[in-house]
Description:
By secondary structure, the chain is α+β, with helices and mostly antiparallel strands. It has one domain (2-94). It is built from two helices and six strands. The chain has helices at residues 7-22, 56-71, and strands at residues 2-5, 29-36, 40-47, 50-54, 80-84, 89-94. The strands form two sheets. A three-stranded antiparallel β-sheet has the order 1-6-5. A three-stranded antiparallel β-sheet has the order 2-3-4. A hairpin with a 3-residue loop joins strand 2 and strand 3 (40-47). Helix 1 (7-22) packs across helix 2. The protein is globular, with a radius of gyration of 13 Å.
Amino acid sequence: MTLRLSMDELVNAVCLNMAMRRQVQPADVEVELCWDEEYGFTAQVWIQGRQQYLVEMNLLEAIEQYVHQQYGHRVFRSDIKLDLNDDEMWADINVSA
Length: 97
């Protein structure tokens, strides 16, 4: 079975993950998802006026935790495939039935 997370859910996953790590409220976290040929999938995160860059492995970790918390599925990074088109980014996740 494949679960698809929308761009909004990816942003929520990063917000929840970073809020937990920095001990702030998720509403205090701003996220901009990015992709470029040199770095691949990344995110810029702003928390209390400070900016941080996340690499793809950080995004995958946030997605793993989000899928477990929100959907009750334990997944591994190898189960997650990030993809995008001109205006949207998403994650397809292989989950056990």
